[in-house]
Design brief:
Layout lengths: L1 H16 L12 H23 L18 E2 L5 E2 L21 E3 L2 E3 L10 E2 L9 E2 L2 E12 L2 E9 L3 E3 L21 E6 L2 E3 L6 E7 L6 E10 L2 E13 L5 E9 L7 E5 L6 E6 L17 E6 L4 E5 L1
Antiparallel strand pairs: 1-2, 3-4, 5-12, 6-11, 7-8, 8-9, 9-10, 10-16, 11-13, 12-13, 13-14, 14-15, 15-18, 16-17, 18-19
Helix pairs in contact: 1-2
């Protein structure tokens, strides 16, 4: 039976190989006659198939684009050459220990930005002075104060984050303030200023992972008319605990003497005030301060706040 199958297969190859008629050769010799020819034919076919096949392509590894203002290093990390101490002005350039920061791409004695991976408000800082302005941005997750929820917020250059009804006013006062008609976090409402040619700006970004992310706005400012009086603080919203906002202070050159700190629901509604024009209410800190000197946490659901530091 096996020999019959071999004969059938060999007859099918007869026309391709142009061999003599199989019937004229003894059956027991057929495998021997064709063995070498068959091997050669199979090798040629395999070789032709390999030549016809396209070369294997290596899978391309793609990375998510770096945030605006950041560049990718050879290791794949995204860095901001304007503020990164270890990549100041160019990739791999590390500032010496005699400096405290990388400011606008140059090693500097100015304070350093605390938020890692944050991006600046578009158009704020760099070559532009910013005074008495606010910009509305989309948020990575919805935030809430006094029961009001939004997926966008207005960042105000005088130390506030508005969930609605913002104002560019620089004249601080008691809360609630009628100039701000919606829920507003007053981290350090004062006549602040962003000077061109520095790393001063408002940086924002998230820390943590879903569903426990934190949305951080870091204000790195100076005072109007005083470019070397620094104000550095963060306003933080929590994905897991809506209605709560936290302020962390790193440096306040006038120690709160001309600012308002608190939170309000509207221009006439509920509010909470920590201080208004109170010298010594916030530690002064310094350009090297890297840990919060004061932390304030406001719970707008319960109408209470706490302080530490």
């Amino acid at each position: 039976q096996q020999l019959r199958q071999q004969l059938r297969l060999l007859r099918q190859l007869q026309l391709k190989l142009r061999l003599p008629r199989l019937a004229q050769a003894p059956r027991q010799q057929l495998p021997l006659q064709l063995k070498l020819r068959l091997r050669q034919q199979l090798r040629r076919q395999l070789r032709q198939q390999r030549l016809r096949q396209p070369p294997l392509q290596q899978p391309q590894v793609t990375s998510a684009p770096c945030p605006t203002g950041y560049v990718r290093t050879p290791s794949g990390a995204c860095v901001n050459l304007l503020i990164d101490f270890n990549n100041c002005g160019s990739i791999g350039y590390v500032c010496s220990s005699t400096f405290t920061s990388c400011s606008n791409g140059a090693c500097s004695g100015a304070p350093a930005v605390q938020l890692i991976g944050g991006v600046t408000i578009t158009g704020w800082g760099g070559t532009v002075n910013v005074d008495d302005a606010y910009v509305t941005i989309s948020l990575p997750f919805a935030i809430r104060l006094y029961g009001y929820t939004t997926s966008s917020a207005s960042v105000q250059s005088n130390g506030c984050v508005c969930l609605a009804g913002c104002s560019s006013s620089y004249t601080n006062g008691a809360l609630p303030s009628s100039g701000f008609s919606g829920p507003t976090a007053f981290g350090y409402w004062d006549d602040l200023y962003i000077y061109a040619g520095t790393s001063q700006s408002v940086y924002y970004g998230t820390t943590g992972t879903y569903p426990n992310r934190n949305l951080v706005f870091e204000f790195y400012m100076a005072h109007f008319g005083a470019p070397n009086l620094y104000y550095r603080f963060q306003i933080v919203f929590f994905e897991a605990t809506p209605n709560v906002v936290r302020y962390l202070y790193y440096q306040a050159s006038d120690s709160g003497a001309s600012c308002t700190i608190g939170v309000q629901s509207s221009g006439t509604g509920p509010s909470m005030t920590y201080s208004v024009n109170t010298a010594g209410s916030v530690p002064a800190g310094s350009s090297t301060t890297s840990s919060a000197t004061l932390t304030l946490t406001f719970n707008t659901a319960s109408g209470t706040y706490s302080s530490s530091g």
